[in-house]
Design brief:
Blueprint: H1 13-32, E1 36-37, E2 43-45, H2 46-52, H3 58-63, E3 66-68, E4 74-77, H4 82-91, E5 101-110, E6 122-131, H5 136-153, E7 159-164, H6 168-182, H7 191-199, H8 210-216, H9 228-243, E8 249-250, E9 262-269, E10 278-284, H10 288-291, E11 299-305, H11 306-315, E12 327-331, H12 334-349, E13 354-356, H13 363-372, E14 377-381, H14 383-388, E15 390-395, E16 401-405, H15 409-413
Parallel strand pairs: 1-5, 7-8, 12-13, 12-14
Antiparallel strand pairs: 2-4, 3-4, 5-6, 6-11, 7-9, 9-10, 10-11, 14-15, 15-16
Helix pairs in contact: 1-5, 2-4, 5-9
C-alpha cells in the first residue's frame, strides 16, 4: 500500500461539501465587494518569491518546495498567493485597468513545515488583493471583507488586531532602536532570532518562542517611530473602522511573516484552535509591484487558510449547509424500477437531486439507505402505483405520506 505524503490530506466525499460551501460563501462575499477572481499557476519561477516574499523570511529560507525542471530552471510551488498575483499584475499590464483593481483567489499553496492541527504542507488559501488605492479607507474595506466572510459563515469569537509597521523611512529608524535594545539580550534568544538580528530584526517580534516573546514585550514599539505620513494613515484607518463600529485592539508586535508589508498589518485571532490562533492576516504592500519591475502602485490584501477555518468552524459546531438528496425512489419490481429511472432523469434535469437503487436492495434496505443519505422524501413505486400513475410520497422528517401523480412530482418537491 502506498500512503499519502506527510502533511497532505485527502478530501473525501463527506468533507468536500464543507469546502464547496465555504468557497461559495467566499465568492458571494467577493462579489458583494466588487472583487473579481484571478487564477495564477501552482508553480512559478523561484525568483517570483525571492522578490515578492523576501529572502530573509522563514518561508523562503526554510519552507519552499523548490526544484530544477528539465530545462534546469529553478521552479517553486507557490507558498502563498500574493507574489504570483503581483507578477501577473506587471506581466499582463493590469496597471492600465480601472483602479482600484480588486482581485481574489482560492488556491492551493505549499510549505515544508511541521504538520499540526490546521497546518499542512499542502494547504489552501482564500485571499484578496486590491491595487491602486492609497487611502486608509481601502485598508478598512479589506478588513470589512474578511469580517463579512466570517459573519456569513457564522464564525464568532474572533478578535481583530491592527498595527502599522511604517514605511522604509521610519522603519530604518526603528530597526536601529530595536537592535540597540536587543543587543544586550541576544544571547538569551533562540538561534533563529539571533540569525534575524542582522538580516531582519523586525521579524524577531514575530517569534513564537516564550523566552523571545518575554524579551520583545519590553522592546521599543514601532508605532512610536512612525513618520507623519504613516501615523496619519494609521489614524485614518482607526477612524474608518470606528465609523462602521468595528472593534479592534492595537498590537504593536504584529509584523506578519512576509517582507512585502508596509504600513497597515492586521490579524483576526481565535482562541478556539489552539496556540496558533491567527485565522486571517493581511495588510498593505505599497512597494511590491515595483519589486517586480512595475510602476509605483499601492496594494493591500489578506489571506486565510481554509483548513484552519474548517477546523475552527467544526470546533464551534457550525452548520456547513450540506446539501441533502431531495427525493429517493424506493421501488418494488422491475417495471417500477424502470419508471423510477425515467422519473429520476426528468427531475435531475429540472435541478432536483434524486437517487434510485442500483444494488437490488429490498424495500426495507432501500428505506435505510434513504435515511443514511439524508433524503428529504422517499417516493415508493410498486404495481399499484404504476397502475394508477402515482407515487406514494413519504416525508422523512415527520413520516407523513400522500399520493402524488407522476406529472406533479417536480412541483411537489419544489
Amino acid at each position: 500500500m502506498i500512503n499519502i505524503p506527510k502533511g497532505t490530506k485527502d478530501c473525501l466525499p463527506q468533507d468536500s461539501a464543507k469546502w464547496q460551501y465555504i468557497e461559495k460563501i467566499a465568492r458571494d462575499v467577493a462579489s458583494n465587494f466588487g472583487i473579481k477572481e484571478i487564477r495564477t499557476p501552482t508553480f512559478e519561477h523561484t525568483e517570483v518569491f525571492l522578490r515578492g516574499i523576501g529572502d530573509t523570511t522563514d518561508v523562503v529560507n526554510k519552507e519552499m518546495y523548490t526544484f530544477l525542471d528539465k530545462g534546469n530552471r529553478s521552479i517553486t510551488l507557490k507558498p502563498e498567493g500574493t507574489a504570483g498575483v503581483a507578477r501577473a499584475f506587471v506581466e499582463k499590464g493590469l496597471v492600465s485597468s480601472v483602479m482600484p483593481l480588486k482581485l481574489f483567489y482560492i488556491t492551493p499553496c505549499f510549505r515544508y513545515e511541521r504538520p499540526q492541527a490546521g497546518r499542512l504542507r499542502e494547504f489552501h488559501q482564500f485571499g484578496i488583493e486590491i491595487f491602486g488605492a492609497e487611502k486608509a479607507s481601502i485598508d478598512a474595506e479589506v478588513i470589512l471583507t474578511a469580517r463579512a466572510f466570517f459573519e456569513k459563515l457564522g464564525v464568532t469569537g474572533l478578535k481583530l488586531y491592527i498595527n502599522s509597521i511604517g514605511c522604509k523611512k521610519c522603519r530604518a529608524e526603528f530597526n536601529t532602536a530595536l537592535k540597540n535594545f536587543l543587543k544586550e539580550e541576544l544571547d538569551n534568544m533562540c538561534p533563529t532570532c539571533q540569525e534575524r538580528y542582522e538580516r531582519n530584526p523586525l521579524r524577531i517580534l514575530d517569534c513564537k518562542e516564550e523566552k523571545c516573546k518575554e524579551i520583545c514585550a519590553k522592546a521599543p514599539k514601532i508605532i512610536d517611530y512612525l513618520c507623519e505620513d504613516c501615523q496619519n494613515h494609521f489614524n485614518d484607518l482607526k477612524e474608518y473602522l470606528a465609523l462602521v463600529g468595528v472593534e479592534y485592539g492595537v498590537n504593536p508586535n504584529i509584523v506578519r511573516g512576509l517582507d512585502y508589508y508596509t504600513k497597515t498589518v492586521f490579524e483576526f485571532v481565535s482562541e478556539n484552535i489552539g496556540a496558533q490562533g491567527t485565522v486571517c492576516g493581511g495588510g498593505r504592500y505599497d512597494g511590491l509591484i515595483e519589486e517586480f519591475g512595475g510602476a509605483k502602485v499601492a496594494g493591500v490584501g489578506f489571506g486565510l487558510g481554509l483548513e484552519r477555518l474548517i477546523l475552527l468552524m467544526e470546533s464551534l459546531g457550525l452548520d456547513f449547509n450540506e446539501k441533502t438528496t431531495d427525493i429517493y425512489f424506493a421501488t418494488i419490481g422491475e417495471d417500477a424500477y424502470k419508471k423510477a429511472f425515467v422519473l429520476a432523469d426528468d427531475l435531475r434535469r429540472k435541478g432536483i437531486s434524486c437517487e434510485i437503487d442500483h444494488m437490488g436492495k429490498s424495500v426495507k434496505a432501500q428505506f435505510k439507505y434513504a435515511d443514511k443519505i439524508g433524503a428529504k422524501k422517499v417516493a415508493v413505486i410498486g404495481d399499484d402505483e404504476l397502475a394508477n400513475g402515482v407515487i406514494n410520497l413519504k416525508t422523512m422528517s415527520d413520516g407523513t405520506s400522500r399520493l402524488v401523480k407522476f406529472e406533479d412530482i417536480a412541483s411537489e418537491i419544489e
